Amino acid sequence: MPLCEAHHALLDSASTVERWRQTNKRIRPHSALEDRAPTTFVAEWVAATMPTDQDAPELLETLT
User: Fold this and answer.
1) Number of domains comprising the chain
2) Which tens digits make up the pLDDT trace of 31-61?
3) Which residues pair with 36 in a beta bridge?
């Protein structure tokens, strides 16, 4: 295989691996996250832990 073809094959392989890595890290469900995708888990966690307007008076009391 000529060097140029090998270079292109290597770049193509790197691109394929990167697509798999992104899918595996962001989209594929993980058993450690109760079979949720990491992006779904993070969105649910942020929604559950972010203070709301209803929490504001209680939070202000903790600051004074």
Assistant:
1) 1
2) 999 999 988 999 999 888 877 777 667 766 7
3) 30
Q: Report residue 8 as tokens.
A: 């292109």
Q: For the chain, how are helix, strand and coil distributed in percent, rounded to 5?
A: 80, 5, 15
Domain limits for position 41: 3-63
Closest-CA residue to 45 (of 33, 53, 62) = 33
Half-sphere exposure of 39 (CA within 13 A, CB side): 7
- CA pseudo-torsion sign 13, 17, 22, 27: positive
This prediction has a pTM of: 0.52
